[in-house]
Design a protein that fits this description.
This protein is of the alpha+beta class. The protein has one domain. The chain contains three helices and five strands, in the order βββααββα. The longest helix is centred in the middle third of the chain and has 22 residues. The protein starts with 5 loop residues before the first strand and ends with a helix.
């Protein structure tokens, strides 16, 4: 294991129950480090078939992009801006109930997997 520090960005996937009232909750987190060829997400489980279908589509797209990024293929196609990257390639900002407009930010860490878990606990599962 290397102790190299990596810069990263994170974005929160939000589900809006009621668009008019803007009632929403954070249901997932994505962490991205272009320099480390890292792109992973964690999502809250649910028993709802509709929710699982949505999250399944997001996970499938994310996994496909993660494979490309981990092979460091065509890094120029991967934006330096995570929010633009996610809305362009995974979930367009189309007024649906799912969006990546939740809390977002940047940081530096030596362990991206641990940071993903920490952010998930803090912003999604509230442990």
């Amino acid at each position: 294991m290397d102790n190299k520090e990596h810069t990263f960005q994170y974005a929160t996937l939000r589900y809006t129950h009621d668009v008019v009232r803007q009632e929403s909750e954070n249901i997932g987190i994505v962490v991205y480090s272009k320099e480390a060829c890292y792109l992973k997400g964690m999502f809250r489980p649910s028993k709802s078939d509709f929710y699982r279908l949505w999250i399944g589509a997001v996970k499938k797209s994310l996994n496909h992009l993660q494979e490309q990024l981990q092979q460091c293929k065509e890094l120029d196609t991967f934006s330096d801006d995570l929010h633009l990257f996610l809305t362009r390639l995974i979930l367009p900002d189309d007024w649906s109930s799912l969006d990546f407009n939740g809390p977002c930010g940047v940081g530096i860490t030596i362990d991206l997997d641990r940071e993903l878990e920490r952010l998930f606990k803090r912003l999604v599962s509230h442990e």
